[in-house]
Amino acid sequence: MKIVVLDKDTLGNDIDLSPIYRLGEWEEYATTPYEQVSQRVKDAQVIVTNKIKLNEETLSGADNLRLICVAATGYDNIDTEYCREKGIALCNVPGYSTDSVAQVTVAMALSLVTHLPQYREFVHSGAYSVSGVANKLSPVYHEVSSMTWGVVGGGAIGTAVARVAQALGCRVMVCRRKQEGEFPLADIDTLCREADIISVHLPLSDSTRGIISRSRIEKMKKNAVVINTARGAVCDERALADAILEDRIGGLGVDVYSTEPFPKEHPFSEILDRENVCLTPHMGWGSAQARARCVAMMAQNITRFFAGEHHNRIV
User: Fold this and answer.
1) How far is it, in rounded angstroms, from Cα 112 to Cα 109?
2) Helix (H, G, I), strand (E, B) or coil at 254
């Protein structure tokens, strides 16, 4: 079989793809501009991709294509209806990054709540050495055990974050579709009003796009810290930037964006210098262990598909 990897660089320069490559003939590209996708996949039987958009325009000439393997749990870059129509199978990789994303979510929240970058800068700049005072206690920080942590999305990642928040002593509330679960449930508007820390863990769909809206952001507490490690478009990015610029929320941590990388004209470009903002380059999913699991699971997806099994199939 011929396997084409369209955007290897998004998986990290240290990644070992040999579990996939030993399955057949392969071609590897560091990244692929949209206009070059159709040419690169025209002879592929299997496409491995992370962030590349695949649709009728890019796939119409790929007559041999049987399987698309997404190096992710989310698959909103893939036109699933076109794949279904053409009999192209689509497999994702569920659950591989749960611990990695949960860890980054909690690290962002604790850093923003505790103002660690500001305290670190005070020492690293030399200001502490010449201050003549043994300690510095501004900006004031508060214990998370005194706070309510609202988790939007009660899947594997949201549940993992909720468990850590509970272990830290937080009151935890979760907004989720399913009624069962180990944490108290709250509707989205109540959660936005009452939570001190709000972390978002939703897939992107028509029903979740813009769910953290301007009106909901305006209902948040003045000290609320918002963390989005899900998908950029589940939040109104302009409204979040305005809330920071107008000091209407306490902090913002974001690892995902509606356009990646976000351009200079993006609203978040206006808040890059704010001390209460932590923006990272969509790295939350990518611990070394998570990426190794991802590759192993993709290799398994390919093997089991060609063995006639229905494993991790979306389409």
Assistant:
1) 5
2) strand
The size of the chain, in residues, is: 315
* Three-class SS state of 64: coil
Helix residue ranges per DSSP H, the chain: 18-21, 37-41, 56-59, 80-86, 98-114, 116-124, 127-131, 156-167, 188-194, 214-219, 237-245, 288-306
Q: What is the DSSP string of 204-232?
A: --TTTTT-B-HHHHHHS-TT-EEEE-S-G
Residues 203 and 236 in one domain: yes
Q: Please confirm whether the linkage preceding 139 is cis (ω < 30° from 0).
A: yes
Domain range spanning residue 64?
2-96+288-306
Q: pTM of the full predicted structure?
A: 0.92
Judge if 92 and 148 occupy the same domain.
no
Q: What is the dihedral of CA 84, 89, 94, 100, to 10 degrees?
A: -110
- Tell me the one-letter amino acid at 228: N
Residues 18-74: tens digit of each pLDDT: 999 999 999 999 999 999 999 999 999 999 999 999 999 999 999 999 999 999 998
Query: Which tokens in the block code for residue 23?
Result: 């399955």
Residue 14 forms part of a structural domain: yes
Q: Provide the number of structural domains found in the chain.
A: 2
**Domain check: are 209 and 270 in the same one?**
yes
The CATH number of whichever domain residue 154 belongs to comes to 3.40.50.720
What's the token pair of residue 209?
């796009």
Instruction: Read off the pLDDT of residues 96-130 as tens digits, 9 standing for 90 and up.
Output: 999 999 999 999 999 999 999 999 999 999 999 99
